[in-house]
Amino acid sequence: MNLKLLFGVLLFNVSIALAQTIDIRYNQLGYFSTREKTISLNSASNFSPQSFSVLDANDNVVLSGTSEVVRFWSDAQEYVSKVDVSEISTTGVYRLQINNSEVNFNVGTDIYESISSASLKYYYFNRASTVISSTYGGVHARSMGHPDTNVRVHSSAASASRPTNTVISSPKGWYDAGDYNKYIVNSGISTYTLLAAFEHFDTYYKSKTLNIPETGGTLPDVLDEVKWNLDWMLTMQEPADGAVYHKLTGLNFSGRIMPNNYNAQRYVVGKSTSAALNFAAVMAVASRVYAEYETELPGYSATLLNAAEAAYAWAEANPTQYFTNPSDVRTGEYGDGNVTDEFQWAAVELFVTTGNTDYSNDINIFSIGNGTPSWQYTAPLALISILHHDTVFSSNISNTARSTFLNTANTLKNGVENGAMNITMGTSNFDYVWGSNGVAANQVVLLIRAYELTDDESFLDAAYVAMDYLFGRNGTGYSYVTGFGDVSTTFPHHRVSDADGVAAPVPGMLSGGPNPGRQDGCSGYINTSNAGSYVDDWCSYASNEVTINWNAPLAYAVNALNFYQNNAALSTEDFSLSPSNAVVIYPNPTQGQFNIKSSKTITSVVIYDMLGQIVHTSTTTQLNLTNFKSGLYVLKITNTDNEIDIKNIIKQ
Ligand code: G3I
Ligand code: 9MR
Fold it and tell me: According to the CATH classification, is domain 113-566 in 3.40.50.880?
């Protein structure tokens, strides 16, 4: 090597060394003023702890120090050092500076307010069979896609009463994802997750408005949105036998076109045990949630329950009908060769809703596993429902469910508290899969449920910190929700966003996220590590698609964290010590007059205000709050068996 070349190589190496970058990865939406605040310094090569300063908007240094010990984070093949800025408790925009690098971050009290709505509004944007008008869709208004009133029965789904090519009507529902198809099992977990959010935080959701066409009507907006999909799901059941079609799709995926330009024949394809059970579980949950709205939707709750019971009976008679794509169908498969978890989940939900021991006799609590839920693995959903309704189960079942559930929750919490990156992801070997961001969101849901179960604040603290992952404190530095964050997903595999001629994607959509499987073969992946296998490109359906099942846990999580932060003082949850006795209060919210419906005789009603003071007592079931101030009130309702129900009511 001549001297000149040697000098050149040396110079090159020096500049590489100087150019070693340390990325500042942070929650790009911001940090809650009263909560922990973690910022991560990440680099592909090793480095020393860094001096840092935090400046406020007036350039005053409000905090300085040295970042924590540098650790190796194997999922990203990166070195990481934590900067803890928790002690900043005044709201504002701050600047974190390290050598050669800086970022701005927010500290506030309403960090998730906007995303809490957008993550739910996505379902409206993904509705089939309706125009999205500019009143509700703004720049993302579009023509109606897929009336789905002329759907044919595919040979794989044919029966004596509905032979091949029979025309059925199967309108409404949400498009699954970036494609325009509708799949039962994936609709199921998405719908369940939104219903669970409502069931767990009903007072919050009753006043949550989404600017959808139904806003201002008699149902809470989230239940109107969910009903759009439930109404479609109901059409997917064959009336003759209770079986449920696996999906409604064309024979192939469409091109990069708007839904109104996609005119291929659509079919209901296959009948499967997984679809029937998933359907049964979701319809059972929906039946008990919509029971409260019998006046507004007469008979709807009963229709849902009948559908659930018929589907369950079909699955019992056809326990191993596993779906695989027929040879002429190339759309998403959503196949599942193990439906033990779906059986247990359906039995649990049917028992909670009906109290019928036929269903509890089918529960084998020891067969219900732990871990993070997915469209294919629904055991944790059964645990969530058992634990939310634990008074209706034997102590054997609820205690076992509790320890199974907490096993996972403790593992997740440990990842946040003690892992190199302070996140839940990577605590199991199944986290970085297709749709890994859905896993991350569901893990936050599990931490929230663990907090509700135990009242142990450390689970809630972990949930807030774990949430950072989706908004930038992760292996790529992207905020994975469209429209939210400084560097966010912009080119998702979402046909509407791609084809609508609008530069910005539909907002509030969670990208699938890092997937080392990289099954799409696209170029441009950031790297090949578990947490870095991501590319923000239309091409990448394996790392950058959006789906209803990944957005649902996002919506659950950000709404719950929003609720705790802003309404903590009002956090009374409905609960019941009279499991077989569904108590319904309506209308709620009320202008004044309201009724209590109960299958048992009510002996006393005590009404408390938010200071815990008794403001009214009664022995009747028709009450009047007309002369009371508007706000939230808590009802303690006792029946002849001395069982107690606690219900919240909003006086408008
Ligand atoms: O079941 C195996 C498991 O046994 C094995 O241990 C594991 C190891 O990786 O793989 C499991 O299979 C995976 C399967 O999902 C179940 O988790 C496959 O590798 C993986 O490729 C498969 O990905 C699914 C993908 O479709 C391809 O089928 C995603 O979960 C699923 O979300 C995605 O769904 C698509 C729809 O088909 C069409 N609509 C869009 C939607 C999102 O991309
Ligand atoms: O767009 C499809 C996406 O919704 C699916 O998740 C994905 C995997 O099933 O498939 C996508 O469609 C692609 C097809 O599989 C192969 N040709 C390119 C298609 C995307 O344009």
Answer: no
